[in-house]
UniProtKB/TrEMBL annotation:
This is Aldehyde dehydrogenase domain-containing protein. Transmembrane segments: none annotated. Residues 28-488 form the Aldehyde dehydrogenase domain. Gene3D superfamilies: Aldehyde Dehydrogenase, Chain A, domain 1, Aldehyde Dehydrogenase, Chain A, domain 2. Belongs to the aldehyde dehydrogenase family.
Length: 499
C-alpha cells in the first residue's frame, strides 16, 4: 500500500509545490465550480508571473538529479504511480466527476487509461531513450560518432478542462519519463485533478520539485509560455489560444510546442453501412462527455439511400440510451456541462441552427434532473436541415449537438468533409473495405476511424492536421518529442588530427 490517500474535498489547496499540496493566496481569484450541482465550492488564487518564475527556477534545479537517473529508474516511479492509481481507482474517478461533471462510467475509463499511460511510458522509456553508434569516414575503431537522447529541461504544460486527469497524465507521462521537470497549469474550470496526480507521483517516489501545479487564467498561462526557463510547451485547448501559445513561445526564447487543439470532425456514413454500426458510431462520435470531446464528429454526413432508416434508428437509440442525470449515478450516460457560460454557448448554437433553417429532431434544451436541478444539463440534440454554411456546421460546438448532413457521392462527401480549417479526426462507416481505406487516405485528419469512432489507445499516435495542431501525444513519438539529440564525434587517436 502507498501513502497516498484520495482527499474528500479541496481544503488542502489547489497548488502542488515541492512535493506537497498547498494553499496559495493572491488578490486575483477564480471560482471553483461543482458542475453537477451548479455550485461554487471554493475560490482559487491565480498565480502571478513572479510565482511562475519562482517555480520554474525550482523545477530547473530539481530536474538535474532526475535527468541523471536512468530511464529504467524513472520508469519505475511512473509504473508505481500507475499502480497507486489502480489501487485508488474508484475514489479518483469520483473526484473526477466532481471536478468535471462527466458520468462516473466514463470517468472510470479515463482513470484506467491514465494508469495505462504511465505504465506505457514507464515501460518503453528504457528501450526508446537510447543513442546510436554511427560510423564516420576515416573511422575504424578510433573515429566514430554516437548520439545521446537528453531531456529538454522544464516543460510548461497547459491543460483544457474536458479530461482533467487524463490530459494531465498524457503530458506528464512522456515528459517525466524523458527526464524533464513539469510545471502544469490546469484549466480554471477543472483545476483539481492535476493536484491529485502530484500526490500520487510523490507517493510513488518522484523527487520534490519535478512536478509542480500552478493555477490561473490567461495571465498565468502566458507567464509560463514566455518564461525563459521553460524549454518546451505542451498545450491542449482551443485554436485561438493555441495561436497565442505558439506566438508567446517565440518571445524571449524559442520553444518547441506540442499543440492539441480543437476540431470540427466529420463522420461519413455510406448506404452500404451496417445500420446498427452506423448508429453506434454516430453516437460514439457525439455524446461522450456531454459532447465535450475534441475529436467529436458533429458533422454526420449520411448517404441519401440510408438517410431515413438511419435517422429513425438513431432517434430511437438516443431515447433509449441517453439518460441525462446526476453524473455520480451509475445509470447516467449524460452528465453536466462544464459551466453555465458553456452550456449557454451550446444552446446558442442550437438557436442559431433553428434560425438558419435547421430542424431540431430531439433534445437541445436545458434540463433539471432530480436532485441536481441547478447543474448545467442539456438533453443531447440531433439537428437536420442545415447547409454546410450554417454556423453550427462550420464552428466547433464542443457540446452534444449532432448535425445530420445528407450527401449523394463519395467524392462529394470527401470534399465536404475536408472543407474545414480543422483536421483533428474523421470517420467512415461502410461495408466496402476498399472504399473505407480509400476514403481514410483522402480525409485530412490526424485520426481516422473505420466502422468505429473515438477509440483511443496509448500506443497509437494522437494529434491534429491543419489548425487542429501539431505534435503528437500518446505513442513513441511523444516520448521522443520531450528529448533532444546530442551528436558526439570521437577521435581516440590524437595523432590522426591534422589541420
Ligand atoms: P482554452 O483555449 O480556452 O483554454 C485552454 C487552456 O489555456 C486553459 O488552461 C486556459 O486557462 C489557458 N489559457 C487561456 N489563455 C491563455 C493564454 N493566452 N496563454 C496560455 N494559456 C492560456 O480551451 P478550453 O475551453 O479550456 O478547452 C476547449 C478546447 O480545447 C476545445 O477547442 C477543444 O477541442 C480543445 N481540446 C483539444 C484536445 C486535443 O487533444 N486536441 C483535447 C481537449 C480539448
Amino acid at each position: 500500500m502507498s501513502s497516498f490517500k484520495c482527499p474528500s474535498d479541496l481544503s488542502g489547496g489547489l497548488y502542488f509545490r515541492t512535493g506537497k499540496r498547498i494553499q496559495f493566496e493572491a488578490e486575483h481569484t477564480f471560482p471553483v465550480v461543482e458542475q453537477r450541482l451548479g455550485a461554487e465550492v471554493a475560490r482559487c488564487a491565480c498565480a502571478p508571473p513572479a510565482l511562475v518564475d519562482e517555480v520554474v527556477k525550482e523545477a530547473k534545479t530539481a530536474q538535474k538529479e532526475w535527468a541523471n537517473r536512468t530511464p529504467l529508474e524513472r520508469g519505475k516511479v511512473l509504473r508505481k504511480a500507475a499502480e497507486i492509481i489502480r489501487e485508488h481507482h474508484e475514489d479518483i474517478a469520483r473526484w473526477e466527476v466532481r471536478t468535471n461533471g462527466k458520468p462516473l462510467v466514463e470517468a472510470r475509463i479515463d482513470i484506467d487509461y491514465s494508469a495505462d499511460t504511465l505504465e506505457y511510458y514507464g515501460g518503453i522509456a528504457p528501450a526508446v531513450l537510447k543513442g546510436d553508434y554511427l560510423d564516420i569516414p576515416g573511422g575504424g575503431a578510433s573515429r566514430f560518432a554516437y548520439t545521446r537522447r537528453e531531456p529538454l529541461g522544464v516543460v510548461g504544460c497547459i491543460g483544457a478542462w474536458n479530461y482533467p486527469f487524463q490530459t494531465c497524465v498524457w503530458k506528464v507521462g512522456p515528459a517525466l519519463a524523458a527526464g524533464n521537470a513539469v510545471v502544469y497549469k490546469p484549466s480554471p474550470f477543472a483545476p483539481a485533478s492535476p493536484v491529485l496526480l502530484g500526490e500520487i507521483l510523490t507517493a510513488a517516489g518522484l523527487p520534490d520539485g519535478i512536478y509542480t501545479v500552478v493555477q490561473g487564467e490567461a495571465e498565468t498561462g502566458e507567464a509560463l509560455c514566455t518564461n525563459a526557463g521553460v524549454s518546451k510547451l505542451s498545450f491542449t485547448g482551443s485554436v485561438g489560444t493555441g495561436l497565442a501559445v505558439q506566438r508567446n513561445a517565440a518571445v524571449n526564447t524559442l520553444k518547441p510546442c506540442t499543440l492539441e487543439l480543437g476540431g470540427k470532425s466529420e463522420l461519413i456514413i455510406f448506404d452500404d453501412a451496417n445500420l446498427d454500426n452506423a448508429v453506434n458510431s454516430a453516437m460514439m462520435a457525439n455524446f461522450f462527455n456531454q459532447g465535450q470531446v475534441c475529436t467529436n464528429a458533429t458533422r454526420v454526413f449520411v448517404q441519401r439511400g440510408i438517410l431515413e432508416k438511419f435517422t429513425e434508428a438513431l432517434l430511437k437509440a438516443c431515447d433509449e440510451k441517453l439518460k441525462v442525470g446526476d453524473p455520480l449515478n451509475e445509470e447516467t450516460r449524460v452528465g453536466a456541462n462544464i459551466n453555465e457560460f458553456h452550456m449557454k454557448k451550446i444552446l446558442g448554437f442550437i438557436e442559431s441552427a433553428r434560425a438558419e433553417g435547421g430542424q431540431v429532431l430531439r433534445g437541445g434544451v436545458q434540463v433539471h434532473p432530480e436532485g441536481v436541478e441547478n447543474g448545467y444539463y442539456i438533453d443531447p440534440a440531433v439537428v437536420t436541415g442545415l447547409t454546410d454554411e450554417a454556423k453550427a456546421v462550420r464552428e466547433e460546438i464542443f457540446g452534444a449537438c449532432m448535425i445530420i448532413l445528407p450527401f449523394e457521392t463519395e467524392e462529394e462527401a470527401i470534399a465536404r468533409g475536408n472543407n474545414t480549417t480543422f483536421g483533428l479526426a474523421a470517420g467512415v462507416v461502410t461495408g466496402d473495405l476498399a472504399r473505407a481505406h480509400r476514403v481514410a487516405a483522402l480525409l485530412e485528419a490526424g485520426s481516422v476511424f473505420i466502422n468505429t469512432y473515438n477509440d483511443c489507445e496509448v500506443n497509437v499516435d494522437f494529434g491534429g492536421f491543419k489548425n487542429s495542431g501539431h505534435g503528437r501525444e500518446n505513442c513513441i513519438d511523444a516520448l521522443k518529442a520531450h528529448t533532444q539529440t546530442k551528436a558526439v564525434y570521437v577521435n581516440l587517436d590524437a595523432s590522426s588530427t591534422a589541420y
